[in-house]
Amino acid sequence: MDMRQRIVSGLREAMKTQDKPRLSTLRLITTAIQDKEIAVRGTGASIGDTEVLGILGKMVKQRRESVRAYEEGGRLDLAEREQAEITVIEEYLPKRLNSDEVAKAVDKAIRAADATSIRDMGRVMRALKAEYMGQMDFVRVGPMVKDRLA
User: Fold this and answer.
1) What angle do CA 93, 99, 101 make, to 5 degrees?
2) Dihedrals φ, ψ of 29, to 5°?
3) Which residues, 6+ apart, have CB-to-CB distance to 132 below 8 Å?
4) Residue 29 to residues 35, 36, 88, 107, 148: CA-CA distances in angstroms?
5) What does residue 6 show for φ and ψ, rounded to 5 degrees?
6) Per-residue confidence band for 69, with pLDDT thresholds at 50, 70 and 90
7) Residue 110 above 80 pLDDT?
8) Stretch 39-56: mean pLDDT
9) Coil vs helix vs strand at 128
10) 146 close to 118: Cβ distance less than 8 angstroms
11) How far apart are CA 121 and CA 124, in angstroms?
């Protein structure tokens, strides 16, 4: 079952159980996917699982930033709501890799790309994003790749 079908079936289940917070989050996800489809409609490109994972990852990142801002502002009720949305979105993301698995994936990508210098960092990052989208935090992986190529 592809990502969109999983999200649609989750949406239907949330409607049946009348789980309003979950339903709201799943509607936000479907809207974000539809917005992306509209944006690429004229280009002939299609939205696959990789793009959906990218959208979901972006949504989680936005919500984590909101949680921090709400907690700093003393709005714990809003922070809790954002955290609940993160929980729902993460159900559709693949399992996150631990630090050892990330290190092995980085080494594998460097070998596969035959990278030898910092100039090859873009190829390594593209390979990692293609294979591990949603499974690792690329903001943290970037410096790791840079250190290994330096």
Assistant:
1) 70
2) -65, -50
3) 97, 105
4) 10, 11, 10, 33, 36
5) -65, -40
6) very high
7) yes
8) 83
9) helix
10) yes
11) 5
b/e per residue, 109-125, with b = 16+ CB within 10 A? Answer: bbeebebeeeeebeebb
State the pLDDT at residue 1: 61
Quote the tokens at residue 31.
């809207």
3 close to 65: Cβ distance less than 8 angstroms:
no
- What domains are defined for the chain? 3-90 (1.10.1510.10), 99-149 (1.10.10)
> pTM here?
0.74
Long-range contacts of 45-52 (CB under 8 A, 24+ apart): 48/2, 49/2, 49/3, 50/130, 50/133, 52/3, 52/4, 52/7
Q: How confident is the model at residue 87 (pLDDT cuts 50, 70, 90)?
A: very high
How far does CA 89 lie from the centroid of its chain? 9
For residue 107 the two structure tokens come to 């080494």
